Design the sequence.
């Protein structure tokens, strides 16, 4: 088969396959063009998820008729005045978007420059079908209709209108978050679904485009390292989601979904979240243009850094420090649904009291019945019946005889308050100056043990307790090999073991903080952790998982009765331990019910 030069229409369709994979991709290119035009207000209208119609209108600089004709040709752009592509600062720069979209849809382009007349140009699947004057204000309006109508092979791969609409809204939300100086509106099928005003600061724009409660459960980030700056907000580990769609990452104001940045983010939250949970973040990374290459992906959603280790280290270390500085913070307030689940005792209607003129029901019920007695075998009135609070002895709840009478400390000194009791041998109830604190004793102690083990990994050896009789644990040979290779690092965690034949290891000591534990189960779980992440993680990262497993083995179990002194000691340790607000799986270790909420439950407010 001989080589031939492809026709222009086919070239544009091939380019469209890279740039315009779905309506959201076309919308992204159009909104980026509006941003680059210097707009202060951008309006987006979507019909049927963008499959039937997309419209983007801005108040930017506009285009002349000659520029409009040139903009519809491939590789024609105003955003590269020189050949220095590495210095590009605009959102777009390739000049492929408009001709690619016009080759697979009906595109209507209307524009007007200040002091000039409006002009319109219509391109239907690559062919110019109309042009002429247009009435509009200064700026540009682009309308895309019937995307992929003549390319059924592409159209059949589009998702439902609802899914495509969700993708379009996410694109606009990310672009709007990157440019708080610009106002954005989005309408879908005639209904306004997003409206943010221009001139906002970065944090206000993030709050307007994410969950309302993120502001109360987030940490600000502001880090400089040389010419690189990292800013934004990150959620507390206990404020997380089951999907990663709530992670907004930007490089030089450009929304990206870069694997390096996502990996660094996961590294920062390692051992703070379960593997299937994700933090909510909005991070803005500003890097000199000479240190980042944005021309590595057709949709410009990935970038390449000159020094990726610097960027990864800055993100992991910076976010870790920010999380450490907030110590034991957790999600401060229970969810509304949890508050609504509190049962309130219904108030029984009170019958009217007898008056001087109202006779008693019978002489036999006269004064004795009013005071709860019954005479002559007559049953007492319902509202006068004496309630017998004596219950069978085996039905009584198990209480603690030890009194908890210490005064409530000041919130600044002891924000978790003073222990008042224990519920279900699992939850510690404490009274703080500003509310009621409930602590999950197992989850809290698990985090405290893990932090102590991590200090051992950083050079402060964990005290070990020698076994009176060394215990032999039989495993398969590969598991024994992995344990033998990691023996020096395990010794720093307080686990001393050595090889004992081809398919066994001998345990000589365990961490003293774990107390009397099942060595067989502990060593088996450590071997499983080393094997499960052998290929994906380095030894230090795998040992983090091992430490989490050991912490779970040695923590205070649910179902164990604690004394008041033990409970208070746990609270005081939590207040000075980093990350004690969440367990090793990202769940909160404590919640606080403010006094206002308690008073609302009892109708005082």
Sequence:
């Amino acid at each position: 088969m001989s080589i031939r030069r492809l026709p222009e229409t086919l070239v544009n369709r091939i380019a469209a396959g890279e740039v315009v994979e779905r309506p959201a991709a076309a919308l992204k290119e159009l909104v980026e063009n509006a941003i680059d035009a210097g707009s202060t207000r951008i309006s987006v209208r979507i019909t049927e998820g963008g499959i039937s119609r997309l419209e983007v209108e801005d108040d930017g600089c506009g285009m002349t008729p000659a520029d409009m004709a040139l903009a519809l040709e491939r590789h024609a752009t105003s955003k590269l005045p020189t050949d220095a592509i590495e210095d590009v600062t605009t959102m777009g720069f390739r000049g492929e978007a408009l001709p690619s979209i016009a080759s697979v849809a009906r595109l209507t382009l209307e524009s007007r420059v200040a002091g000039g007349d409006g002009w319109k140009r219509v391109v239907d699947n690559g062919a110019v079908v109309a042009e002429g004057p247009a009435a509009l204000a200064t700026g540009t309006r682009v309308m895309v209709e019937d995307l992929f109508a003549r390319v059924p092979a592409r159209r059949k791969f589009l998702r439902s209108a609802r899914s495509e609409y969700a993708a379009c809204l996410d694109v606009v939300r990310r672009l709007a978050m990157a440019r708080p100086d610009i106002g954005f509106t989005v309408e879908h099928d005639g209904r306004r679904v997003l409206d943010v005003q221009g001139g906002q600061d970065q944090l206000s724009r993030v709050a307007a485009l994410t969950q309302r409660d993120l502001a109360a459960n987030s940490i600000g980030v502001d880090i400089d390292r040389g010419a690189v700056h990292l800013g934004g907000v990150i959620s507390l580990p206990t404020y997380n989601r089951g999907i990663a769609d709530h992670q907004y990452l930007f490089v030089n104001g450009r929304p990206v979904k870069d694997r390096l940045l996502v990996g660094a983010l996961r590294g920062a939250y390692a051992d703070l979240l379960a593997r299937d949970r994700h933090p909510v973040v909005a991070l803005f990374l500003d890097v000199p243009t000479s240190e980042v290459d944005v021309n590595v992906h057709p949709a410009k959603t990935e970038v390449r850094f000159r020094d990726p280790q610097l960027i990864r280290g800055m993100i992991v270390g910076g976010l870790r420090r920010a999380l450490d500085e907030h110590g034991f913070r957790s999600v401060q307030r229970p969810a509304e649904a949890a508050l609504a689940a509190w049962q309130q005792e219904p108030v029984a209607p009170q019958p009217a009291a007898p008056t001087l003129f109202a006779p008693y029901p019978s002489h036999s019920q006269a004064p004795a019945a009013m005071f709860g007695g019954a005479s002559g075998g007559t049953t007492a009135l319902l509202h006068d019946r004496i309630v017998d609070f004596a219950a069978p002895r085996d039905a009584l709840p198990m209480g603690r005889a030890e009194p908890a009478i210490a005064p409530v400390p000041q919130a600044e000194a002891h924000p978790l308050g003073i222990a008042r009791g224990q519920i279900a041998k699992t939850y510690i109830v404490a009274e703080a100056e500003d509310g009621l604190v409930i602590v999950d004793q197992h989850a809290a102690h698990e985090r405290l043990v893990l932090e102590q083990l991590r200090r051992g990994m950083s050079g402060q050896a964990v005290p070990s307790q020698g076994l009176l009789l060394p215990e032999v644990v039989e495993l398969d040979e590969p598991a024994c090999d992995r344990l033998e290779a990691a023996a020096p690092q395990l010794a720093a965690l307080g686990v001393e073991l050595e090889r004992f034949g081809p398919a066994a290891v001998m345990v000589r000591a365990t961490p003293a903080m774990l107390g009397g534990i099942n060595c067989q189960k502990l060593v088996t779980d450590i071997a499983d952790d080393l094997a499960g992440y052998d290929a994906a993680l380095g030894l230090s990262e795998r040992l983090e998982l091992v430490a989490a497993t050991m912490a779970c083995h040695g923590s205070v179990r649910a179902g164990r009765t604690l004394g008041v002194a033990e409970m208070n000691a746990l609270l005081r340790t939590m207040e000075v331990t980093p990350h004690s607000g969440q367990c090793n799986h990202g769940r909160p270790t404590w919640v606080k019910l403010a006094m206002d909420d308690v008073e609302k439950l009892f109708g005082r407010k």
Notes: Residues 353-393, 395-401 have pLDDT under 50 and may be disordered.
